Here is the input.
Amino acid sequence: MEAFISLFLLCFTTLTCCLKFSHHPTGGKIQEGFEIELTCFLTGDILQKQLSWEKNRSKLSEGETILETSGLDEKRIDVDIKQTTGAYSYTISISSVVYKDSGSYACVVFQNGEQVLTSDYAIVTVFQLPSPEYPICTRISRPVITEEEITFKCEGETINPPIDLSWSIGGSKLEISDESYVDSERTFATFSLTASPNNNNAVYVCSLTTPANSSIVRSCSIGPLNVWYKPNVTIQHAGISLSGREAIFICQADANPPVVDFTWLFDPPLNIERYVIDDIGQVMRILRVTLDENGLIVKCIAKNTVGQVTSHVIMEVIGSKEDDKPKTNAIESVNEKQAEKKSISLSVLLAVVSVLVLVIVFAIIVPVYYFCICSKKEDTVVIAQPEVYFEPQDRLTLPLPNKRNSVLWRRSFGAQVPTDRDIDAMYLEIQSEHYIFTPDSRGNTLPY
Here is the structure.
C-alpha cells in the first residue's frame, strides 16, 4: 500500500513538474458590443478534460464544454483547444460583450478533481454605453409665475464608466452649484433658479457624454419656458405739446399673458369730451391742448391675469404762434367768415364761366376752322412741274429779197432745265429756220 501511494505521488509530481504555461491570458478594456478573446499556452502532456476556464474563481468550462452552472449564454461563448506536439492552446471567445462579462479570467489545470496549475489572472473591464433613451429631462409644462423657484432635472444611467451630464442655454454651458447625485441605477443632474421675465421662452439643454465613446453626445431639453409676469408699462408721447394742437399718448406694455385692459387717468381730472381713446385702449388723444393743462399728469394702467402696473407722464404745454395773434370779437369773426365764403363763391363762378367759354371754342370755332382748311385743300389741284418741258411754236415770215420764190418757216421752242435743285430753273429759247418754196407767196407772215 505504501508503495502504491509512493508511486502515485511520483507520477503526480512528475506530471505537475512537466506542465507549465508558456503564455498567460491578457485582459484589457473593451466597449460593450465588441468581442474579446483570451488564450493561454501550455507545454507538456495533459488530457483535454483537465483544462478549464475560471471567472472570478468560478468554473466556466471543462475542456470545450460550457458548464450550465456558469450562467453564461452559450450562444455568445466559444471555447477551443488546439493541440500540437507537447503543447496546447486554450482559448475562450465572448462575442457582443456586456457589462456583466467584466471580471478576472484564468486558465486552470485540474488533476483528479484537484486544481494543480493556474495561469495569471486576466482582468477584463467592459465599458458600458448609455441606453438610447437617455438622457431624460423632466418637463415643465405649466406656466411659471415670476419670482417662483423652479428646478430642472436630467436623468441618466449609472454605468461604468460614469456618464457626464451638463446643462447649457443658447450653446453656452451653465456653471451651476447644485450637486448631482447617483444611486444604484440612475444618475441625476439638477439645478434651480428663480423665474424672471428674462427666462420667458428660454430653452435649457441637458447633454450626455461618456468616456467609453467620445462620439456619443445626446441631449434633451426643457422649454421654451412660459413665465408669467406683470406688464412692464411705458408711455410714449412727444414730450412738449403746443397749445391748440392735438397731443397723442401711446401706452406700451410688455406682458405675459397679454394685457387685457388699458385704463387712462388724469390728475387733475380731464373732461371726457376733451380726449379720445382707440378701440384697444392703447392710444389716447387730447384733441385740443390748452395752456391750462401744463403740468397735467397722464396715467396709463395696464392689467393682465398676473396683476396691474401704472405708469405716468407729466404734460408740458407751451404757447403756439396763433396765441400771439390779437383776438377779435364774435361779430368780426362772423363777418370775416362771410366775406371768405363770398370770395370763394365768386371764384367758383369765374371758374365755371371759363370752362363754358373753352367748351364753346372747342365745340364751334375749331370744327368751322377745320372745315374751311379742308375745303381749300380739296379745291386746289397741284400739278407737278417737270424738270424739262417743251413749248413748240411755228410761224412764217416775209420772203427774203433774193429768195422771191421761198418763204422762211421758223420753229421755236423753250426748254427749262434746272442746273441744281436748290436754284431756280433757267429758261432757254431755241429756234430753227427752214425755207419753204412758195412761188405764189404774198410775203405775209401766217400762223401755222
Observations:
- The first strand starts at residue 20 and ends at 23.
- The chain has four domains: 2-127, 136-225, 230-321, 393-437.
- Residues 136-225 form a domain with the Immunoglobulin-like fold (CATH 2.60.40.10).
- Confidence is low (pLDDT under 50) at residues 1-16, 327-334, 421-428, 440-448.
